[in-house]
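Aim 2, interim progress. The first record below pairs a target sequence with its structure tokens.
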Amino acid sequence: MENQIIIVRLATADDKHYAETITNEMEESAKARGTGIAKRSPLYIEKKMEEGKAIIAVTDQGTWVGFCYIEAWEHDKYVANSGLIVSPAFRKTGVATEIKHKVFNLSREKYPHAKIFGLTTGLAVMKINSDLGYEPVTYSELTNDEEFWKGCQSCVNYEILMSKGRKNCMCTAMLFDPAEAEAKIKAAEAAKALTQATPVKVAETVVTPEGELVTHRHREFKGNFKLFERWVRFKQFVLLKSSRKKDEGNGDKSDRKSLLSFFFFW
């Protein structure tokens, strides 16, 4: 790894020989985390490369480093940046952040009006997403495309997802809405134009009946990331505990009560 230059760029058909390495690492990484991602074949990854819908990172010596691709849903209304993976030897180098930034920009270029979303259990990815302008949302704000949700079937937590009526799970849903982003820019410009600053209330955070933490629009999410990180860990603990108590018949009530108690305590 030393003395190697990492290049993060658009993947092309010439990168097909990396496809099997990428899918193998995706599977191994999911096993190590104890979670799952939609399984993709090398042929599927090759197709994304051919379509110009993927970002790849390699060294100047040809070693594969990382990868991420784009999927569009509901006639291009929603776009997911999926399958982010980095080779173990190159983790904690900042390459994941660069890949995420480039695939985000690629998504904005190809689908300028689409809402960009992701589901993840990784706090590091959530932090990168927040820096890009994503905000936590309920699952109901994501695509309704059944093909997308079928991808969750390969995840070890699929039973939890279905037991919650597909409204909550171990993953946190995050969304970038271009219309909202534009509105925020205009609001910031208008505020800057004022001769005297006026305090503006940042929208509050609430817990939905499904136990999902949601911050309303026009909120300042980044500044509260530490609290959000604690909530994510607690949510995952509660959901796992609830799934183990499923046979007792009180899982849904107990986990909702725990989440509400945690939120109001903080």
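The second target in this work package is listed in the same format:
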Amino acid sequence: MKVLDTDRLILRWLTPDDAAFILELLNEPSWIRFIGDKGVRTLEDAKNYIVSGPMKMYSQMGFGLFMVERKEGSIPIGMCGLIKRDTLDNVDIGFAFLSTYQTQGYGFESASATLKYGHEQQDLKRILAITSLENQASSGLLEKIGMKYEGTIILDKEKLKLFASEK
């Protein structure tokens, strides 16, 4: 199901058919370094990740992490979406892209559209974002889309930067 449409991108729900892409994305060095090793090593692992993560959140919340595809050629390039974690009081925005497609404005384009979607379509008053202390690219992107740095928090024994956007 298509959720968002930008100048160059389509954001849509993930399905088990996206397992090969998810397997590649979750094993990118930048994913493992900044997000963490999810232990996804096979297509079956990737399908389980999609079903138990994004698809479960779609059914519970009406949103989740979305596939980001380039309109030109329907090429999958990353994920961007809204996540409700048990460990945070508010929904947060998350994103990750294949290294081939980083630094081309796709993160900004999809994250700014997702933030607007969260505030306007999902009526979320406050949206958070977290990033590792050393992930300067993500911190810069969050500030560029209008999120404000609020300090650091400890989440799952890891010190992270916390950003927020208020409606």
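The chain has a mean pLDDT of 96. This observation will shape the mutagenesis plan for the next reporting period.
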